[in-house]
Structure formats: structure tokens, C-alpha cells
Write a structure and sequence with these properties.
Protein name: IS30 family transposase
Oligomer: single chain
GO biological process, one term: DNA integration
Pfam families: HTH_38
Order of helices and strands: HHHHHHEEHHHEEEHEHEHHH
Function: Required for the transposition of the insertion element.
Largest sheet: 5 strands, mixed
Number of helices: 14
Number of domains: 3
Radius of gyration: 30 Å
Number of strands: 7
Helix content: 25-40%
CATH topology of the largest domain: Nucleotidyltransferase, domain 5
CATH class of the largest domain: Alpha Beta
Shape: extended
Keywords: DNA recombination, DNA-binding, Transposition
Strand order of the largest sheet: 5-4-3-6-7
Length: 385
């Protein structure tokens, strides 16, 4: 990284001429916002400049352009020594909170399972290394509380991540990544996470655009949907009407060829691809009168990629909940929990026939609910019919 010179390469940094102007205006007792307005800069930029690069040798926070430029050049030098490399006490604190031994209440150490570090993320159903396992952010935020008067005991969580993942920083052993919550040995690039958004989800179909009548459950015909997943990518679709809690189960059998080699760019064969889910919902919803198929709220799963065609076929408006917000489909999530009594996790859901799914739905729909005044969903739904 080049040093800040008198002729800056980018307008991102303050130039020496701007620092001279700041010094003159400051000497004339102008405020931070007035200086920022005259230079065309953000007030926070001027405030940080006056605070960080002031001349402090005389015991006062006087601002001089030459001293400020010297401070800026010194801070821009690269590479900088890592804090953990130059502070053994801080390094030991971070390492103890990240990879410390698990202890029982009586103080005895518990080793936990022995796991060999293989340089990749361990599977969810495999043993993980037992450790204190504070997150880097927890460590960074706890330091001011444990060392309130020691400014040398400060580090950002990003610096800890870099010490783990960038071996050029060379402080923390790389196998300590197994103590992180994710257990990743490689860091996921931000560009990759930004590209994970569902392209078929636009702001026009987000839950914020759903009619307000769906929120208070006063008007029937607003549904919530989801998939419950089982062994070998088997799935069952669930639809729940918000007002009556009436439940419909969608039969999604695996397609021919599932389990064998998959054709390149071929359709998903597990039975819950976009087209299979669209056809199953259309076949079910189309049998209902118009006032009972007003909207459908789903999560942002890829199985709803053909929601536009579903709306054309059935007239059902489809909306999507925000990412990682299951409470926005609370009725459906609660129903899925009830269904797990019949379809436990880790079981093959494809073995259940269409008639068996209807039987389970009938059981739920004839179970009295407290929220309905101890009436059954079937009774309330029939009233709307």
C-alpha cells in the first residue's frame, strides 16, 4: 500500500492542501461542520482527523498540517505488526478463550472426544473438538470489561479472524479454526455470500407487500407453506390456512431415476423441485373457491422459483418471508412441529402414500385448538366454505 503523499492518488484520503485548510479554519475557531462544508467532506471525516492527527507534544490538541501529514504517513505504512504477535499477554488471553479446556463445575478438566484436525469443516453429525469456544467478537467485546484501564489489551474480532485464517499473520495455529462455531478451515469470501440471494425474489413479492388483512387473520384465504425434509432428500409439502389452521399435505414422491446418476442440467429428481411443488400446489389450491385462495407466504427456498407461473395458473398471490425469519410464518412452523410426531426427522418421507398423508392431515384438522375456542380447524374451515 503506497504512503499518503502530497499528491494523493485517490480522493478518499485527505490531501496536504486540505489539511492546511483545516488548520487555518480551525485557528479561526470554525466548527467541525463548517469546516466539512467548506471542504466538501463528511463532518465525521473532519472530526476523526482532528482527533487522530493532532499535535500533542505540547500537552494540547493543537492541529498543524505538517504534523497531521506525518501522522497519516506513519499510520499508512504496511505491513503493520500484528497485535497478537507483539503482545504475549493478549495472545494468551485470546487463545485461552478460543481453545481453552472445558472444565466441570468442580474444576476438573474434561477432554471430550478426540478429533483429528483434517483441514476442512467437520460434518454436522460428527464429533467436534471440545473447547471454551468463545467467538472472536465475544473475546473482543469482553476485553474492555476484564482490562478497563489497560489500552494494550484491545483487539478487534476481525484481527482474530485474520490471525486464524491468514497464516501470513502467523500468530494463532490454524487448527484452532476447529474451535469456531462453524469449524471452517477456509473463510467464505463475501462475494460468494452476496451471490446466494434468490434471484426470483424481488421486493414486490416480499412479505412487507402482503395485504394487511392477512396479519390479523380476520379474512380467510391467506395460506402459509413450507417443506419438511426427511432422509435421502425426501420431502412433504405443507399448506396451512392462517385463520382456521386448516392443514393440507402435498405428496411429493421422488421422480424416476432418483438415486442414480443425474443428467447434467437436468431437473431435480428428489420430487420437490420448483416444477413439482408448483404442480402440487396448483392441483390442491385450484379446487378451492376464489375467496379462500388469496395469498401464500413461503420462505425463500428454491422450490418456489416458479411462483410467477403459479400465480398465473391459480390466481394465488405468492409472498416471501425475510431470510432467517421463521416467526413470519409462525402458523406453518407450529404445524410442522406437530407433523414431526408422525414424520420424525431422519426418516424416509417418500415411503408415505398420498392416502396416508390425507389421513394425517385429517387427524390434525379434527383436533380441537385452544386458539379457535376449542373448535377444530375442519369446523372453522367449513364455515368459510
Amino acid at each position: 500500500m503506497p504512503l499518503i503523499s502530497l499528491d494523493p492518488l485517490s480522493g478518499r484520503y485527505l490531501s496536504f492542501a486540505e489539511r492546511e485548510e483545516i488548520g487555518l479554519l480551525r485557528a479561526r475557531a470554525y466548527g467541525v461542520r463548517e469546516i466539512a462544508r467548506r471542504l466538501g467532506r463528511s463532518p465525521s471525516t473532519i472530526s476523526r482527523e482532528l482527533r487522530r492527527n493532532a499535535a500533542t507534544r505540547g500537552g494540547r490538541l493543537d492541529y498543524r498540517a505538517s504534523v497531521a501529514q506525518w501522522h497519516a504517513d506513519r499510520q499508512a505504512r504496511r505491513p503493520k505488526p500484528c497485535k497478537l504477535a507483539s503482545n504475549d499477554r493478549l495472545q494468551q488471553y485470546v487463545q485461552d478463550r478460543l481453545a481453552g479446556t472445558v472444565c466441570a463445575p468442580d474444576g476438573s478438566e474434561i477432554a471430550g472426544p478426540k478429533v483429528r484436525w483434517v483441514g476442512r469443516r467437520h460434518g454436522r453429525r460428527q464429533d467436534r473438538r471440545w473447547a471454551t469456544a468463545w467467538s472472536p467478537e465475544q473475546i473482543a467485546r469482553r476485553l474492555p470489561a476484564d482490562f478497563p484501564g489497560d489500552e494494550t489489551m484491545r483487539i478487534s474480532h476481525e484481527a482474530i479472524y485474520q490471525a486464524l485464517y491468514i497464516q501470513g499473520r502467523g500468530v494463532l495455529s490454524r487448527d484452532l479454526t476447529a474451535c469456531l462455531r462453524t469449524g471452517r478451515a477456509l473463510r467464505v469470501p463475501r462475494a460468494r455470500t452476496r451471490g446466494r440471494g434468490r434471484k426470483f425474489v424481488t421486493k414486490e413479492v416480499m412479505i412487507s407487500q402482503r395485504p394487511c388483512e392477512a396479519d390479523d387473520r380476520a379474512v380467510p384465504g391467506h395460506w402459509e407453506g413450507d417443506l419438511i425434509i426427511g432422509l435421502d432428500s425426501s420431502a412433504i409439502g405443507t399448506l396451512v390456512e392462517r385463520t382456521s389452521r386448516f392443514t393440507v399435505l402435498l405428496h411429493l414422491p421422488p421422480m424416476e431415476g432418483h438415486g442414480g446418476p443425474r443428467a447434467k442440467n437436468g431437473p431435480p429428481l428428489a420430487g420437490h423441485g420448483a416444477q413439482a411443488v408448483r404442480d402440487a400446489i396448483a392441483a390442491t389450491i385450484a379446487r378451492l373457491p376464489g375467496h379462500l385462495r388469496r395469498s401464500l407466504t413461503w420462505d425463500q427456498g428454491a422450490e418456489m422459483a416458479q411462483h410467477a407461473q403459479l400465480r398465473i395458473d391459480t390466481g394465488l398471490a405468492v409472498y416471501f418471508a425475510d431470510p432467517h425469519s421463521p416467526w413470519q410464518r409462525g402458523t406453518n412452523e407450529n404445524t410442522n412441529g406437530l407433523l414431526r410426531q408422525y414424520f420424525p426427522k431422519g426418516t424416509d418421507l417418500s415411503r408415505h402414500s398420498r392416502s396416508e398423508l390425507k389421513a394425517v392431515a385429517t387427524v390434525l384438522n379434527n383436533r380441537p385448538r385452544k386458539t379457535l375456542g376449542w373448535r377444530t380447524p375442519d369446523e372453522v374451515f367449513n364455515e368459510h366454505l
